[in-house]
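User: Please predict the structure of the protein below. I'd like the answer in structure-token form so I can feed it into my own downstream comparison script.

Assistant: Understood. Taking the following sequence of 130 residues as input:
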Amino acid sequence: QVQLVESGGGLVQVGGSLRLSCAASGGTVNDYAAGWFRQAPGKEREFVAAINWILWSGDKYYADVSKGRFTISRDNAKNTVYLQMNSLKPEDTAVYYCALVYRPNNFARIGARSDSYDYWGQGTQVTVSS
């Protein structure tokens, strides 16, 4: 049973940075592709970024709003997936969730879909103030 705990959220000014962490237990993150999603009040959950499992390609994928500002990465020694967020905007305000899926096929096509993932954390709040 894989369990995920997100941390690193908080209140930040426009243009600031945050680093979100997703600590996994019950499995090694190298055997899983990982994604970050977010959900703002009154809106549906949306894709932010994803990274393929390392024994396939380890390729990274980003939503258009994330490109050039956010970076997804993993540290297997710490069994943790990260989302580095720079140049934050008020529209980035949301609860951010991490998710894992075990050795997926065709991840480049399915990684942006929330129903592609097997395990989810409970989320961490990010608030960007102007």
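That's the full token string. Residues 96 and 124 are 5 Å apart (CA to CA).
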